[in-house]
Amino acid sequence: MPEPLVQFLDIRKEYDQTVAVAGVDLDIDQGEFVVLLGPSGSGKTTILSMLGGFVVPTSGQVLIEGLDVTRLPPAKRPTATVFQDYALFPHMTVANNIGFGLTMHKVRGAERARRVEETLSLVGLEGFAKRQIHQMSGGQRQRIALARAIAVQPTVLLLDEPLGALDLKLRRQMQYELVRIQKEIGTTFIHVTHDQEEAMSIADKIVVLNNGLVEDMGPPRQVYLRPKSLFTATFMGESNVIAGESKGGSGGAFNVGTPFGDWSLTGAMEPGQKFSVVLRPEQLRIQRPEGDCALMLGRARVTKVLFQGSYLRIECDSATAGVETLLLNLSADNRVNEGEVIDVFASAVDAVVVSH
Amino acid sequence: MAFWRTLPGWVYLVLAFGFIFLPVAILVFFSFTSRDIPLPPFEGPSLRWYNKVLNNERLVDALINSVIVGVGSALVATTLGFLAAYSIARNTSRFDGLMRYAMMAPITVSYLIVGMGLLISLHIMGVPKTLWTLGAGHVIINLPLCFGIVFAALGEHQRNIERAAHDLGANDFQTLSRVTVPMLRPSLFAAFCISFTLSWDEFIIAFLLTRFEVTMPVMLFEMLRTGLNPEINAAGSIVFGISMTFVLLAILLNLRLRRKNA
Predict the structure, then answer these.
(1) Residue B85 located in a structural domain
(2) Distance, in angstroms, between B169 CA and closest chain A CA?
(3) E strand or H helix that includes residue B8
(4) Of A148, A344, B196, B262, which one's alpha carbon is 20 to 30 angstroms from that of A21?
């Protein structure tokens, strides 16, 4: 097995009073598009900065291609960063911004011009070479910042919430562009964001961070549908979290006591153990599923119906469990009215058991 | 109705600006008279007195001295101000706040005190009074301003821009010379313009610290001793005109910079 391109070995970063990163081990492979996802203060930007060389960890090691770069300055690392505020050179033309890193790496003359031109067309800015930075729009500046970092052909490209300042439409467009460019040049991208939808639409691998620790890691589908922790389940979109207690079982199945009655789930769990069962809003339904894997969530009174275009968002109070509020996303062709009483079901294969 | 409601405001505005600008306007106006005294009735316009100023060797020498001291001291003050601002903005130490105040503090000391202090120090050290000593005095009074202007332009965004330069492989010197200084060029130029203007107009320190080679304000003062004379008006107008040019340059630059950053 080839060694990972980037390795974080038990990285910690402490500031005067606070712990920003509390011991993170992380491997990143060549060619991956990795997204570090977490709320503000989760340590995601600090981790990126320690890879870029702007922050020196309190302890632990950062390796790139097996080489210890923990204490190397940014200029000596095979990384390039796309900054959140773009940090373009305001006194230079677009072409000179993109060519700056090449000049610093002693690439000059025709070779430099060729690579600047190539990078410009890669990010879709042909013909803008001679423009000044202040003549460019926000979205264009974003592309220039990306081009400037790509031009030096880094081993790892670091993106620090680069789409944060763009409006929704432009952000979507840039997400596609980022993925296209990453696949085209094959460089490893490490992208920091707090937007879980952005993470899911661009990442090969999502690393969920919380309080300076890795909560979860994996492809978007796995992190969303099979979260390893309650934090991941609630941070990656909305969830119905249902308290459960194991009543033991055998043969690859066990019984769970919930406010909605006893359910049978696959897996094994010691009797008496407490945990949460996570069900996504779109995994709840109002028709009983086929087969014997149905989970009953009892009757519930609909308190709110929101038409969202492609689906109906329904909030209801469970009659069975008293105060539990359930959230359902149903396809838009369902007809449900506020005040109506519905039967709620789920499928055992969708239920994710998350220990506390 | 709107006219009557806004009338007091307009009257006030005209009076206020009149109070500020009328004396200077009158000085400039009577520099164009063809009579021998700068008083009404006005006859002309004529460039007679400007001609006289430019043919007066002592006045022209004083003008040249003023330019030398102004440009020299402004260059030094801008350079030193930049270095101080850069080092305080880019290094964190416990004394940052203290150093910032210490840099800005001389702004509150009157020119007379600065001049007297220098005069006494020079006397003790046995240094003769020349344009050099005057230049040193002007560096002292302009340094806090230059420091303040440049420091204000060195925010977190600028810091990120320098980080980007390092990230792309630039060493400290390359970052400073290719990114930081060019990026700050508008602020540096504004600092230079204001320093030059203040040095150009400065009288007290110039009066105390020069002897044989004098600058324009000192020369005007000497000329005033012999009474009012349109030649003084003309010389004063030239001094005023050059000051205004530099102030306007600084303002224009500032406007352009703001539009760029918008």
Answers:
(1) yes
(2) 4
(3) helix B2-30
(4) A148
